[in-house]
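Q: Convert this sequence to structure tokens.
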Amino acid sequence: MEETTTIFGIRTVIEAIESGKSIDKIYIQKGLSGPLFSELKEVLQKTSFNISYVPSEKLYKLSKGNHQGVVAKIAPINFANLEETIEKTINTIENPLFLLLDQVNDVRNFGAIIRTAECCGVNAIIIPEKGGAPINADTVKTSAGAVFNIPICKVNHIRDAIFYLQSSGVEVTAATEKTEQTIYDIQFNKPCAIVMGNEGKGVSPSILKTVNQKAKLPMQGTIASLNVSVACGAFLYEVVRQRL
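A:
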């Protein structure tokens, strides 16, 4: 099974960026300076990678050599282009199903969601460039390899992806407790997309304002919410049930 590759060294990371590698995250030592680092900064200004500024101790844990203050994680997959993926899917599938993840942070939740999405016939998963869980070895393992079987698109802003889906005739539903409508009130026999939110905060308010509708799962117990991967499974299988 393919896993995340760790690369280190300023020149190595620059070359990886310029060659178009799918970089999942870049770690840069706090306070780093110098002409080579200035070159890296110039390259990074043209990109929107997920970057963390960390102490040197963190970099030593991530790498096994002279990291020069920079370590990068290369994703085990190539991310799909959003516009091309949506256009191709809509033109070839009668009722496509898309899944958007608004900053799901836990890699195991992410992997479990990918696995369920693949089983439910989701045509593409859309994630933010920054703020979400990386696609690393844990994600791959938890997804049981499903990460290699479904297109995953990285976008700068989830809201922009929602607008693009809506302009393409796709109805977008957000999973949230901030509504009286349940998933059983929604008709999913049409081109549709579901938005799942962060483990703690849920779907962000700005995104809730842009979706076509909101829906929740009816809760019978005393605990107020489900794990996001479980909730996602319930939403997706309601789509499957309606389409059978």
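The CA atoms of residues 25 and 50 lie 5 Å apart.
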